[in-house]
Amino acid sequence: MANLVEATTQQQFEDFLAKAGKCLTVVHFQAAWAPQCGQMNEVMAELAKEHRHTTFVKLEAEAVPEVSEKYEIASVPTFLFFKAGEKVDRLDGAHAPELTKKVERLAVSGSPGEASDSGPTDLNQRLKKLINAAPCMLFMKGSAQEPRCGFSRQIVGLLKEHNIQFSSFDILSDEEVRQGLKTYSNWPTYPQLYVNGELVGGLDIVKELAESGELENTCPKAVTLEHRLKTLINQSPVMVFMKGNKEAARCGFSRQTLEVLNGTGVDYETFDILQDEEVRQGLKTYSNWPTYPQLYVKGELIGGLDIIKELKESGDLVSVLKGES
After folding, report:
1. Which of 22, 27, 65, 138 could crosslink 57 through cysteines, CB 3.0-4.6 Å?
2. CA atoms of 272 and 258, how far apart (whole Å)
3. d(C-alpha 56, C-alpha 1), whole Å
4. Which of 286, 269, 285, 246 is nearest to 321 (CA)?
């Protein structure tokens, strides 16, 4: 296939870029020993059939070190996207859907020069949105679950240790954001931490804030499970924690509870414990009550189905639900 080629030298690599001109060139930095590279080559071969005007280049990363070093290739597979000899995007890792998406987007868009009128403004708007996507936003290499560099790993550890609630953005997945944010915030390195849309800084500053005890005041704290349970219990004057919900009980005890409550004419709200394992386990400990359903009135535990039945039989249920006793 004419548009699926291999570069074994720096000169060949540069020739392919020059020959492609303003058309998209996708370069796969690979290694023969990495099975995921073989899988991504299969994906690339399929893409090459669909995108005849795009050049797909396979390059053995260790065999052409001068190119790998120039573009900071730290792992394989890594994909770089070029137009008019300029790098326009990057993808680290074996992410077939993401590779397909980037090729489709970049293959149809004009060259960087043609897009430059609206480009910077659009990018700034996008960066502003990302920075404000959560009260505390971390731009890092990798994700909070899988950091891809030591600095990112350290900053995630610090934030978690201090119980800071944060969202993260993987800059390795979007070269435009990776480069644009450096200029936008005038901060040349990653990770970068933002609070309420304002740059706090990188790892060193977060370390200083942690050591001085200021980190908790700077960043929003994660909501603790206890606080969450308290909020849920007090969500309505009468709350039932059950399997299923008002419309569809998911066990016999829950169904019977609803039948009894519906007969009282008192308004109540339900919470489906099957949808939230943290609440399901946490509430047992919080209220020292091991089973479900659980009935709460004005934040206080009344009990389960047996107690609800007893209150109904004694004629006290309505007054208890209304908080009169």
Report:
1. 27
2. 13
3. 10
4. 269
